[in-house]
Here is the input.
Amino acid sequence: MPRKIILRTGDGRSGILLEVPATDEFQLQELIKNNPDLLPVEEFDMTGPLLVVGRETAVASGAVDLVAITRGGEILVVEFKTGPQNTDFRRVLAQLIDYGSHLWSLSYENFEAAVAVRYFNDGAQCQDDRVAGARSLEYAARQVWTEMSDAEFLSIRERISEQLRLGAFHYVLVAQRFTDTIQQTALYLNETMPRSFFYAVELVRFVGPANEAFEARTILRPAQKGVAPQATNKETLLNKFTDQAMRASVSNLLDASRGVGYEHYWGTTGVTIRLPVPDREPLTIAWLFPPDGSGWMALKYLTLGYGQWTFDQSPSSQEALTEYLRAVERLPGAQPVTTKALKGTGFTLPPDAIVSNEDAIRELFAKLMAKVSETT
Here is the structure.
């Protein structure tokens, strides 16, 4: 039996609205895109309002209906279906996981470029004047979360990076009706995939003679899977290096970089050293992670260089960055990074190379900072 609701207007009139099917997936998609807070993220134990960062986002296997970020930094991958009468409806959970597999292992910079900035600059898709034309995720976030502090955005950025590294996304299926079968499958996935989170949200359309309304309600959500990991710190990171000489050199390099004006962004396993530039937010020029390979893109020890995307977005600093990379490449023991995100623009130094090149690295940091400062 279709459900009914009573709609009362401000002038005291009322009418009965009857539940009817949505016109198609596009209608649901447009409704959430233009009114993202209709998704009941508070029932997910998340904080709104939502920032939509993608619609019809192209990946190798198709297009993600909607990608959004909460104020806590959770990445939501959203798919819409009009109901169980759709013959593909039971395949949608596999479709969501497939989409997640293409986001997995992206760097923050690549996610920002390929998903968020592309959406913000697509006039046909992005109709939100607050973020239209945005060239960075941080700029868009500050337009939506106007009272956000620098520390809060840093936390959001690190949370996004960590989810991309682990593939730990929040998958939201939105439909008008859910069969018992698909709810059982989602429950199974929540129990057996500890890094992934699956939600089912009913978005129901009600229509009357002169009005229509939509209601969103959470049908299924995962049980609490633990507290989000906390950022590490200098002491904890240094304790993971057993080589005493390397530990001392790393500590000296962190102090030296901070002393000449670099910023340190601490994640759950390591730290990135970032260069303030005039064109954009600070640009990463070094990564420091434990020796177990648990860092971003399996990096370990000290990696020097930059991401190609950040280089392209920093025209005023490109000459200085090119000189820096050439000097890094000449350091004895420097090994080219093979991971796609830093291929050709990153070099890792193992423990003995860090120790023997400590003075040279400190000098590289100082020269790069001085060169970029000349352009500001």
User: Anything to note?
Assistant: The first strand starts at residue 4 and ends at 8.
